[in-house]
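Give me the fold.
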Amino acid sequence: MSADIFAKIQANRGPLGQHAKASHGYFTFPKLEGDIGPHMIFRGKEKLNWSLNNYLGLANHPEVRKADAAAAADFGFAMPMGARMMSGNSNYHEQLENELSAFVEKEDTILCNFGYQAILSSIDCLVDRHDVIVYDSESHACILDGVRLHMGKRYVFKHNDIEDCEKQLHRATKLANETGGAILVITEGVFGMRGDQGKIKEIVDLKKKFNFRLLVDDAHGIGTLGATGGGTGQEQGCQDGIDIYFGTFAKSFALIGGFISSDAQVVEYLRYNMRSQIFAKALPLPLVVGALKRLELMRNQPELKNKLWEITNALQSGLKKAGFEIGPTNSCVTPVYLNGSIPESTNLIYDLRENYNIFCSMVVYPVVPKGMIILRLIPTAIHTLEDVNYTIESFSKIIGKLNAGGYMSDEIAVV
C-alpha cells in the first residue's frame, strides 16, 4: 500500500518546521510594523532593527514614496495585463532594462518578476543535459534549486577555493569534451550569510586555461559595491569577465523583482526561452516605475552609498574591537559568530529583543553547523552611529551571559 503524503509530512516536519509551534510569530515569521527603518515596532514596542534588506534606505525615501504613489495612482497594479511576450510589454519596462544595462555595463537586460525565480529559471534555460555546471558550495538556495533542475552533470567546489574550482573545471572540461557540451560556472558576488565577496576576478582569470561562461548572483553587491554601485565585478575590476550578471530589486532597491544582464544575443535567447517569464504576468508598472526612480537615486546620490559604508565600517570595526568574531566579511553583511545550542540562541534572542530592544536575525542549524549561532546584522544608510554604539554595548553584555551559561536550556524559549 502506498504512503500518504500528509502522513509523511506529519511524521517529518523538517529541521526548522519541527520547532514551528514554539517559534512561530516570534523567532520565525515575526511581524515588524510601522514605517520601514532602523526603528520599528515589534509586539507593541519599538526596536532597533538590523534585519531589513534596505541598504541605501530607499524604502522610505521621500522621492521614492512619491514616485511609488504616483505610479500606483496612474496605472494600478494590474497594468500591464498579461505576459510581456503576449500583451504585457511597455516603454517603461524597456527603459528600465536599458538603464540597468548601462548601470552594470552590459549590452542588454531582461526584467524578471522575482529574484529567486530569475536565477533558478535562467540556469534551467541556459544549460541542457550535455552541459556541465561548476558552482560554489555556499551558493544561495535559488542557485542550488536551479542546479537541481539541471539534467546534466554538476561539480561543486569548496567555498571561494580557487584551487578546488580549477580542479572541478578540469573534471568538467573532460566530461564536456566527451558529451559535446559547454561549461557554466556559478558563484555569488557577495555571499549573504558570511558577507565575503566571491573571488570573481580569480575565477575570471581561469578563463585563460578553461573554456566556460560565468554567471554571478550579485544580489547583495548591486548598489553597495563598486565606484558607482555597479556591483562586485565593478569593485574587483572584472565586470567585463562576468558573462551573465544577475541583480535583485529586493536589497538595495528595496522593491520586488530582479534582472539578468548579458550580451544582447544571450538576453534575446532568455526572452524567448525562459519559461518563468514567457508564461508569467509582466512586472506591474508601479514596480517598474518605482525601480526607475530608485536607480536614478543610486546614480545621482552617491552620498547614500557613502553613508551606508560609514555605518558599516563603524559597526564592523567596533564589533571586532569589542572582541567579536565577524569572519571574512568584506561587504555590508555583518555576521556575529557565537557558540551555543538552538535553545540557547532562542533565549539569547529573547533577551536581546525584550530587554535591550534590538531586533536582528538569528541563524542556526541546519543553515550553519550545530553548536554555532550567527546574529546577522544588515546596516543601512539610515542607521546612525548612536545605533551602532548602543548595539555593540548591548552585544558585549549578552556575550557575557552566554559564556557564563545564562542562556542554557534544554528547550527553546517559549514566548
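The domain at 15-49+303-403 is CATH 3.90.1150.10 (Aspartate Aminotransferase, domain 1).
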